[in-house]
Amino acid sequence: MKEIIAIIRPNKISKTRDILASLGFPGMNAMKVLGRGKQRGIIGEVTFDTGMNTDTSQKAMKYIPKRLMSLVVQDEDVPLVVSVIMRANRTGEYGDGRVYVCPVDDTVRIRTDERGTEAIT
User: Fold this and answer.
1) Structural domains of the chain, ranges and CATH numbers in brackets
2) Under 8 Å between Cβ of 4 and 120
3) 25 C-beta neighbours (distance < 10 Å), count
4) Are 69 and 13 in contact (CB under 8 A)?
């Protein structure tokens, strides 16, 4: 099993969630997060007041709003899920995000005590 963690633009979370659900991956977690990449949060990415200070001399923000989504899938499903996330979120501009694939040693469904693959299906 693998955990796929994607950090994406806030306006792309619904599209990504809907496509994944239509392909049979309805279970996921999502959180509002703040961050920046190597471009250091270019101004213009955010069109609303975040309440954070901006450095107008460098035309950058300390952090910009993003969404972090996480789901656990079977090893053979990783290429499909990653490609769907990539296609749904790629604009070709700075700030499209990142996808991380991490190993998962075990999963336990609390309600039934199912383990491994049975716990994620």
Assistant:
1) 2-120 (3.30.70.120)
2) no
3) 19
4) yes
Q: Could you please report the per-residue DSSP string of the chain?
A: -EEEEEEE-GGGHHHHHHHHHHTT----EEEEEEE--TT--BTTS--S--S--EETTTTEES-EEEEEEEEEE-GGGHHHHHHHHHHHH--SSTT--EEEEEE----B-TTT--BTHHHH-
Q: pLDDT tens, 61-113?
A: 678 899 999 999 999 999 999 999 999 999 998 889 999 999 999 999 999 99
Quote the pTM value. Answer: 0.81
How wide is the angle at C-alpha 26 spanned by C-alphas 23 and 31, nearest 5°?
A: 125
Distance CA 69, CA 16 (A): 10
